[in-house]
Amino acid sequence: MRDFSAVLSAINAFLWHEYVLYAIVGTGILFTIWSGFSQYWALKHGPAVVTGVYDDADDPGAINHFQALSAALSGTVGLGNIGGVALAIALGGPGAVFWMWVVGVLGMAIKLTEVTMSMLYRNTDDPDNPHGGPMYVAAKALERMDWPRLGRVIGVIFCISIITSTITGGNMFQAWNVGEITQSYFGVPTWMTGVVLAVAVGVVIIGGIKRIGKFTGTVVPLMVVAYLGGGFWVLAHNVGDIPEMLALIVSSAFSTSAATGAFIGGTVFFGFQIGMKRAIFSNEAGQGSSAMVHAAARTDEPVREGIVAGLEPFIDTIVVCTFTALIILSTGIWNRAPDLAFDGTPNFVRGDTGWMLEPTRVPGDDWFAGDSAFLIVSAFDNEQTGNALHKVSGIVTETPAGLYIEWLPFSSDVMPQPASDGYYRNYVGATLTAKAFDAVTPGLGKWIVTIATWLFGLSTMIAWSYYGEQAVVFMGGEKPVIVYKLVYCVLIIVATLGLVRTDADLDNVIGIGTGAVMFGNIPIIWMFGYQAMRAYKDYIARLRSGRMGPDHPAPRIDELLSGGDVKRS
Question: Which end of the chain is more exposed for a tag (fewer CB within 10 A), N or C?
């Protein structure tokens, strides 16, 4: 298990080198300036398009703008918001949230660009099952430049990267979080949760994009309302702390965060790095993933769907992620006191694999076998925290004598010394957010966040299965799709078998997937983004001059949800 974690960490470090982060930020700044701050039009014009006033049943595509946005948001507004934000704060501190905001704003321009590109080059040979995405952009654009083989190669590289991201962030991260929170609150073995999720996802994805669009168009608005409703209740109890928390987010973004309680500290760069990674994972800007589902939208104006897509990072990162961050920060769950006091000073002994700690007995009333825990120690200098603090991880196991924390070896040239007053339960991802809800009203997180986690996890896995499917279709046609779907469902179960245990492991898993797809997609944006910008400026010029406007009133809400407003007669 330690070797597996070390491999993940090494790959993650390579994919998220500081220069990679600078390239992503630079891409966002470039297209923000080039488009003349397209964020403005996304916020002004995008909502009107989503209401259906521009929908036309005669346009090519399979689903309306609202369903396309809902399907895309089902892949973004989800556990990245509940679990990803919690992970960002737990590792990078409050300052990580500020950098999530930065990526959210810049991501609006990136998302508009990549979706517009995909709409320009989508394949609508089958009008009820269109295909699109960065792979089609590379293949078709380079074919027109008489470089068809190069286009095919670049397209395949992207497909491999998106499948990697699908397996890790779109699938395993979701299933792991659902299994973890269900076990934490109800003691259900994670693998059982994996089986239920696999069956539920399989039932939906077999039906294709129309069933996916109908499912997400119904579930996403409901689950967001339920989550926000519970969250407002929490914030209402801590409303006086909100200004202080917002100030803490900003100040922590530009200074090293000191250790406090369960938080061991974080440097400015580490907070920047964590915030960037979690925001990109959450809103998917620069990944090219949601461009595939937007390609199914029924429209004859490529830029129009790009503007709708520009709303995603705003809704996902600026609104929902901030909401979750304020809940976690205002309740103090991120820097809580130890969950279990020391019964005698922990004594480390050097072993063959590192410093070892004797198993620690835990009470059996609210601890379960499989839970993770950690102990804060002082040892060598930690570049990520700016101090000498580290976490020693452990797993709760059941023995004939009761429940004990079995501690993992800790590698250090100096003997670690306990730096806290007790042991901490390792609330990773969505579980930390749920505990924040519980801090205000006991049991609120148990039900609201657990149910939201199930719905968010399901909708995200369903949306991402479609992204991987489009990559499979591009590389091998329709025949391998059924095999892909079966493997996808099996991997849901694999994710709940215990390979990921700590917040660092979780960060590595999703970091690898997100990093891989960025490497596959950003070069495509650089090569062909100018075409999206040319089309965007033409569209905005026509919109400004009044040469384009809605041709009919907004459809009824039931038609919008079901896609009835664009069904061909």
Answer: C
